[in-house]
Design goal:
Blueprint (H helix, E strand, L loop, with lengths): L8 H12 L8 E5 L11 E7 L17 E7 L2 E7 L10 H4 L1 H9 L3 E10 L9 E8 L1 H4 L26 H14 L3 E8 L8 H9 L4 E3 L3 H9 L3 E11 L10 H25 L1
Parallel strand pairs: 1-4, 1-5, 5-9, 6-7, 7-8
Antiparallel strand pairs: 2-3, 3-4, 5-8, 6-9
Helix pairs in contact: 1-3, 5-8
This protein binds hypoxanthine.
């Protein structure tokens, strides 16, 4: 599979129609659950589950901690559509295919998208188990050309040159902070850097990422945020800090550590997301 792939609109429409036939209402809020965070979907009531491989055009998730299901149900009185498990570029899909579900959400009428991910902490103040609200990102991967919007632009999806200076909705960020503080959850706001993965960063790369102003690093989220913003959605993104990266006393991160930290992070992220939904 190449980095890029041209996906016709009809393919997104077929997936949206397939899902629409199987759900009793139209969700307006979407959630994307990152590595080790899949059990956050347990909070969704009266839910219908659709496996990624059944849905036309959906990429099947291949990584442990990512079952790959669409869950539709109610959370805090809001109809929601949850991607339980996401697909990463490093799994071998094109950057357009990994963001396919986001465009399907756009067609289904999703207006607010809440994303979570597991990330390595670069900011020396961060501890494993902390939560970071994304204020901005450094899409190293997209800056180098792997942008999901590459290719002819269809104005029906969004503008050719979308502005990302307000990609992370200030109002939703403020709500998330308010909830975290009320719940006593260690909370930060910061800049997320995305790399393609799957290898973890070298100490020199960690030093570089700190120098350019990144507070956390991961292998997801940015392509989805770009597509969501292109489609006019309001975005809230939360990183669960699963491990910390110190270039001067380097401890190798591991996928097990990421999944384990998820156990502390799931109740924290669940509380923040529930609180935000109660307030919107
Ligand atoms: N680096 C990149 N991605 C990650 C990390 C990390 O240390 N932890 C969780 N996702």
């Amino acid at each position: 599979m190449h980095v890029h792939e041209a996906i016709p609109r009809s393919e997104y429409e077929a997936a949206a129609a397939w899902i629409r036939e199987r759900i009793p209402f139209s969700p307006r809020i979407g959630l994307v659950l990152g590595s080790g965070l899949a059990s956050l979907a347990d909070a969704v009531e009266g839910s219908i589950a659709l496996a990624f491989p059944e849905i036309p055009g959906f990429p099947a998730a291949t990584v442990e901690g990512h079952p790959g299901r669409v869950i539709v149900g109610q959370l805090e009185g809001h109809p929601v559509m949850v991607l339980q498990g996401r697909v990463h570029f490093y799994e071998g899909y094109s950057v357009q295919r990994i963001t396919f579900p986001i465009r399907v959400m756009q067609l289904l009428g999703i207006r607010i998208l809440i994303l979570t991910n597991a990330a390595g902490g670069l900011n020396p103040a961060f501890r494993p188990g902390d939560v970071m609200i994304l204020r901005d990102h450094i899409g190293l991967f997209g800056m180098a050309g792997a942008n999901p919007l590459r290719g002819p632009n269809e104005a029906d999806w969004g503008p050719r040159f979308p502005d990302l200076s307000r990609a992370y909705d200030p109002e939703l960020r403020a709500l998330a902070r308010e909830v975290a503080e009320a719940e006593g959850i260690p909370i930060h706001e910061g800049v997320y850097a995305m790399l393609g993965g799957p290898s973890f960063e070298t100490p020199a790369e960690v030093r570089f990422l700190r120098l350019i102003g990144a507070d956390a690093v991961g292998m997801s989220t940015v392509p989805e945020v770009i597509v969501a913003c292109h489609g006019g959605m309001r975005v809230l993104a939360l990183s669960g800090i699963s491990n910390v990266l110190n270039p001067d006393a380097f401890e190798p991160p591991s996928h097990e550590e990421v999944l384990q930290a998820g156990q502390v992070l799931v109740p924290r992220l669940t509380a923040i997301i529930r609180g935000v939904l109660r307030r919107i």
